[in-house]
Specification:
Layout lengths: L4 E4 L3 H13 L3 E4 L7 H4 L3 E2 L2 E2 L4 E2 L6 H15 L4 E3 L2 E4 L3 H10 L3 H6 E3 L13 E4 L3 E3 L1 H14 L3 E2 L15 E3 L16 E12 L9 E3 L3 E6 L2 E5 L3 E3 L8 H12 L7 E13 L5 E4 L6 E5 L5 H18 L12
Parallel strand pairs: 1-2, 1-12, 2-11, 7-14, 12-20
Antiparallel strand pairs: 3-10, 4-5, 6-10, 7-9, 8-9, 13-16, 13-17, 13-18, 14-15, 15-16, 19-20
This protein binds flavin-adenine dinucleotide (FAD).
Length: 334
């Protein structure tokens, strides 16, 4: 019988790895220290083909089909749908962006993912035009984590406890730290090239938008979460600690960005923040510890955890079980 793996952390990363173990028949056990504000619990879970002010194709976009198949397959195990497609209207916010977009339209890759905006709601002001992305959507992250957790607990596969690498015995098998930003500065992983990026998100009531189910994106995004409620975010601020206190300045920044394209009145119903685990390369990082081979890590998913964690979890398993090389962009040891 195969020795179980011990996965530390049940955020987006640890959950993807645990389900990959389940699909491959690799025994595992999860350990998660319950915390209210983690990147995964706060995350909007949004996946879009084109992102950022430079309007570039999203890193890892080639993983989209595998990502959708993964969440659908586990959705069948759990009896629910977690990943939903929602078209995104992307507002061009200034002349530079508008000119950049005109250039992108000469590239078939961008053309394939977009179309012109039709029937734009009168509650928005597209000052420099807009385009629409059809294959975007979001993972209902809170439900994904909670349903997965319930299933792991029911099957005796999860313990609500904190694990320190010093307490991990080689006799018990492989210990994989998928503990998000808490990996930083944690010996013996303190040499990993990572940092913290704090992010705020607001929950809004916007009754005038009715049943509109589009995602909107300008200088910030606006996400429909049902019954007249929306979320908007996210700020991105490098910080020296994993402090998750919401920032007053962050709220001000989000509201001012939102007002640049939303005309409808709204009220702020909630304000939360969390810390993303970010690498210096912006790609995730994973591997076995070079001098303590019973320890491994899987993290640094930055702002792309939903899209990239299913594929990189599969690559990591192929590496650990079949000795296949890791994709070079996530292998910081070679
Ligand atoms: C404001 C904000 C908005 C975001 N929006 C998006 C988005 O739209 N789309 C997207 O794809 N990504 C988004 N992200 C990024 C995404 O949330 C992250 O990539 C992802 O959550 C990282 O997951 P993780 O499992 O590595 O870390 P975490 O979510 O931090 O999970 C780590 C887990 O490990 C546990 N833990 C820590 N230390 C220990 C220990 N010693 N023992 C046991 N358990 C431990 C923690 O309690 C936690 O449950 C956003 C992030 C933020 C902050």
């Amino acid at each position: 019988m195969k020795a179980p793996w011990h996965i530390v952390g049940q955020g987006i990363a640890g959950t993807a790895l645990a389900w990959r173990c389940h699909l491959r028949g690799q025994p595992f056990r999860l350990y998660d220290q319950p915390r209210a504000e983690t990147a995964s619990k706060v995350s909007a879970g949004i996946v879009t083909p084109i992102a950022g002010q430079r309007l570039t194709l999203t890193q890892g976009w080639a993983f989209l089909d595998e990502m959708e198949a993964f969440y659908a397959e586990i959705g069948q195990v759990l009896g629910d749908t977690f990943y939903e497609r929602h078209p995104t209207v992307r507002f061009l916010i200034n002349e530079t962006e508008s000119a950049r977009w005109q250039k992108r339209l000469g590239d078939p890759l961008y053309l394939a993912e977009t179309e012109s905006c039709r029937e734009l709601s009168p509650h928005f002001t597209p000052s420099h035009g807009c385009f629409c992305m059809r294959r975007s959507g979001f993972l209902r992250v809170a439900a994904w984590l909670a349903h997965s957790r319930h299933w792991f607990l029911k099957n005796g596969l999860l313990a609500e406890s904190q694990v320190h690498p010093d307490a991990c015995s080689p006799d018990e098998g492989l210990w994989i730290f998928a503990n998000g930003p808490w990996l930083l500065g944690l010996p013996p992983f303190d040499w990993l090239p990572m940092r913290y990026a704090h992010g705020d998100i607001l929950t809004l009531a916007i009754p005038d938008l009715g049943n509109d189910r589009h995602l909107y994106n300008g200088e910030c995004w606006l996400q429909p979460i049902g019954e007249g409620y929306w979320r908007t975010g996210a700020t991105y601020e490098a910080r020296p600690t994993p402090e998750t206190k919401p920032s007053v300045d962050g709220r001000g920044e989000l509201e001012s960005r939102l007002r640049a394209f939303l005309k409808a009145p709204y009220t702020v119903e909630d304000h939360v923040a969390a810390v993303r685990p970010v690498t210096l390369t912006r790609f995730p990082t994973m591997g076995r510890h070079p001098s303590k081979p019973h320890l491994a890590w899987f993290g640094g998913f930055s702002s792309k955890g939903v899209l990239t964690s299913p594929t990189y979890a599969r690559h990591f398993m192929d590496h650990l079980l079949d000795d296949k090389p890791l994709p070079s962009e996530v292998d910081c040891l070679h």
